[in-house]
Structure formats: C-alpha cells, structure tokens
Amino acid sequence: MGDRIRLDKCLTLNYGLSRKEAGVVIRKGEVTVNGSVVKDAALKVGPEDAIVCNGDGLEVVTEQKKRYFMINKPQGCVCSNDDPMNPIVLTLLSEEAGGLFCVGRLDLDTEGLLFITDDGAWAHRITSPKKSHTKTYEVWLAEDCPESNIELFEKGVLLRGEKEPTRPARLEILEPKHVLLTITEGRYHQVKRMFGFTGNRVVGLKRISIGEVMLDDDLMPGEYRELTEREIALF
Asked: Does residue 144 have an active-site annotation?
C-alpha cells in the first residue's frame, strides 16, 4: 500500500481548498471512498482508493505538486511578497499564490523574464552565486555605447564599494544606444552600475533570458505561463 493521507488533505491538494473548506464538503456527504459516502475528514486514504467528489475522480497525492512559472514582469511592480507602497508581482497571477515567491529580483523600473515558484531548492540552484547562470538584459542607454566597452566589460570593472571586479560580461551593441549585456552574477543594480562606471546611464532595462530559458515572445508585460518540463530540468 502506498503512503496514506487524510481525506480532507486529499481534497486540498486536488482542488486548492483550505482544510476548513474541504471539511465542509466532506460533512455534506459529497465525497465517496470506494463507493461509500464518507463524512470523516480524518479518514486515511491512499493511491489504491477510489475517491469521488461531486462526480469527479480524485488522484491521491502525498504532497502538493511544485509549481513553476515564467512571467514578463512589467515596470512598476516589485518582487517582494509584501510591499505597502507598490503593487507586487504575485498579484498578477490568477493562481493561488500561497507558498509562491519570486526567484531573484528585478528592480521596480526593470521589466522582463522572472521565475515564480514554490520550490525553494530549485530556486536556490538558480540564484546561488556558485552556479553562475547567465542572465541577458536588453539595455537602452542615454548616450552612445562605444565599442571599447566590449573589451572593458569582458575584463571586468571595479564598481564603487566593491572589493572584487565584476566577472567577465558579454556586450553586444545592436545600435549606438541599444545593447545586450550578458552577466553571470547578480550584484545590486549591477547592469546600471556597470554602465554608470563608463559615464553612461541606463534609461530602459529588460531581462530576456536566464541560462538557456528565453522570455516567451508571446507574453505581454504582466502575462505569464507555466514552465515546461524541459525548462524546469535546466536548473
């Protein structure tokens, strides 16, 4: 026999109900186990049991399936779970947000690719400095970006207040004021500070990839989708 869980927990995992709501459904006699109505929320059930709620067959799982999303974060919202001054990213999801959090951070005025999950171990594999996952940003600048910045960023620059120079970064100049910058670390305001080091100023910033995962072109700002199994397995 497989692992067994309470009947009310089975309903919460299948329907996203609270434990209290699941108890109400059970006490109303809307749930059968192996063909018999059961009103005991504490009854232990397992994968071998046939559980039906309002005509729907339920799968008995012993823990909630982890959730993984990519969102095209718009400007003007923050990545924290609570902010009294600004809207938060999680409110853009129609999903039940319990347990979900943003993987890393994008500034209030930065848009683009952001992961959201409830899997702490997976998130750590992305954000850990030891992993060195690449992050590519589309950058719009106030002044022209000289070709000399390509070599400068590749060698690394020593930002104000830092003890170590930045890791080698790849700069691609698309237009004089429009570039792509790929970095492998996540220092505070790093992209803005790197261009500030050269005397330039970032006027627009959008993250377009993390590792091999690209921001979905079909996602408008504020829209999101589930990550594919392949995308999840990359980290």
From this structure: no
